[in-house]
Amino acid sequence: MTGKTQGGWFVYLQSRDFRKTGIAIFLFFGICLLVSFLWLKVYTHHGQQLALPDYTGYRYEDALEDARRKKFRISVQDSLHVLGKPGGMILKQHPSAGSLVKAQRMIYVTITKRTPDKILSGRLPEMYGKNFERKKRELEEHFEIKSRIMDTRFDPGEPGQVLEVQYRGTTIIDARGRNNDVQVEKGDFLDFIVSGKSGGQVAIPNLICMTYEEVEFYLENLGLSIGDITRQNGIVQIQAAYIVSQQPAADGSVMDLGSSLHITVTSDKPDICD
């Protein structure tokens, strides 16, 4: 019986039905493998044909809305203060624009700060009596602060020197000292008053009976100077000569700083002088 069974199986394996069955089974498993391979390929590469947009220069809110429509996510990784740029602008992104990414991929962005960085006025460099142009460059290069001249005031020293610094109407530096507690925003302006050879007025002084040496020192402190000199009585030592008249006269009016007075001098002290 066993021999008959074995013989039957041998005959069946050589039969046409077996070949058909074998081919059918082979095709079935082949199709299953092919479908599985294709499914894995699609699953593995799902979303990688989506090219990432370039969001640099966009407002963060606009980029966020666009990314949601396109099945992306956005997260702020860092924020920086950039002079002249409004807050919330995207400066850079990762992955970069054009990258092929999956749906729901997180995009990390760096945006501009919405509130500018602030610097305490106490951290600013010494400026009183310093050259304005030099301090202007220093403030912009090292502190990102702009400078502008709001006024020029007469000063007997070199022109263009810093006499006063204000921020939004508050004086932070002048001849009396400095205020170290003012918050100055990066990108904002400091207002300067600088020295000049003109730019103000002073009451005309009375020089009569003063010596030339006294007048020279006195006028320099007032921001005025000696103009034409008329000499009387053959003066030898002009420093000791006395002023007997002047133009313009000291009549209560004013004259521009930097102007000159014309004087007449004599070697003898006038009788009208004490």
Give a topology summary.
Layout: H1 2-13, H2 16-44, E1 50-51, H3 60-69, E2 73-80, E3 90-94, E4 100-101, E5 106-112, E6 118-120, H4 132-143, E7 146-154, E8 162-167, E9 170-174, E10 177-178, E11 183-185, E12 189-196, E13 201-203, H5 212-222, E14 225-231, E15 242-247, E16 254-256, E17 260-266
Parallel strand pairs: 2-5, 7-12, 14-17
Antiparallel strand pairs: 1-4, 3-5, 6-11, 8-9, 8-12, 9-10, 13-16, 15-17
Uncertain regions: pLDDT < 50 for 5+ in a row?
Answer: 43-47
> Could you give the count of β-strands?
17
Secondary structure: helix percent: 25-40%
- Mean pLDDT equals 85
Question: What is the CA-atom radius of gyration, in angstroms?
Answer: 45 Å
Dominant shape:
rod-shaped
Give structural notes:
It contains 5 helices and 17 strands. The protein has 274 residues and is an alpha+beta fold. The longest helix has 29 residues, at 16-44. The relative contact order is 0.10.
Quickly list its features.
274 residues; alpha+beta; five-stranded mixed sheet; three-stranded mixed sheet; 17 strands; 31% strand; rod-shaped
What's the short story on this structure?
The protein has five helices and 17 strands.
